[in-house]
Amino acid sequence: MQHLQNVNQTKIVDFTVINYDSIIVGLVLGALTLLILWSAARKATSGVPGRFQAAVEMLVEMVDNQAKANIHNAESRKFIAPLGLTVFVWIFLMNFMDMLPVDLLPAIWAQIYGAAGHDPHHAYLRVVPTADLSTTLGLAFAILILRFWYSVKIKGAGGWAHELVSAPFGTSKNPIFALILGVINLLMQIIEYVANTVSHG
Asked: Which of these, 21, 17, 37, 29, lies nearest to 95 by C-alpha position?
C-alpha cells in the first residue's frame, strides 16, 4: 500500500514528502478525541457514573497518577496531565484504525477518486497514521521537546544541567571521580533521551 502523498519518495529519509493521508486521518482522529473527551466532561455527573464516564474517569486517574509521579510541580501538571490524556486517547484511536477492515476506507476512497474522473487504481490511502514513521517520529520529537522544556522550566537551567551530570550514579567529592561520574552520567542521560525518543517513534 502506498500513501497519498505530494511526491513519490525516492530515499529512506526525504523531508520533502508529505503524506496527506496520515495528516488528514490524524487530524480527523484528533478532532474525534477532543469530541469524546468534551462529551465525557459535559455529561459528567457527581452521582453514580455510567460506563462511559467511569471509563474516562479511569483514564483520567491513570494519567493523573503518572503526571504526579513524574512532575512534582502542580502548576505544570495543569498542562501536562490533560495533554497526556489527549495524546493517549489520540494515539489509541490512531492505532485502533488497524481494527477496521484493511481495504474498506481505501476502497471507498478509490470509488470517490474514480467518480472525480481520476484513475481509481492510483487512489492511494493508508488509514493507520501510526504506520507512518513521519507521524510517530513527529510525536516522539514533540514529546522530547516538551521533556526538555518542562525539565528546564521546573528545575531551572542550572538544576537540569546538574541533573544531567549527577544522575543516575550521583557524584563524588573527589574532583577526578566527580568528572568521571559526570561524563558517565551525561552519557547515560543522552542514551536515555535517545532511547525514549526512538521507542516513542
From this structure: 29
Q: Residue 170 corresponds to which amino acid?
A: G
Q: Residue 1 — pLDDT band, cuts 50, 70, 90? A: low
Exposure b/e, 4-33, CB count within 10 A at least 16 = b: bbeeeeeeeeeeeeebebbbebbeebbeeb
Cβ burial of 77 (10 Å; 0-12, 13-18, 19+) is: middle
Q: How far apart are CA 189 and CA 139, in angstroms?
A: 20
Distance CA 201, CA 189 (A): 18
Q: List, for residues 108-137, the tens digit of each pLDDT value.
A: 999 999 999 999 888 888 899 998 888 999
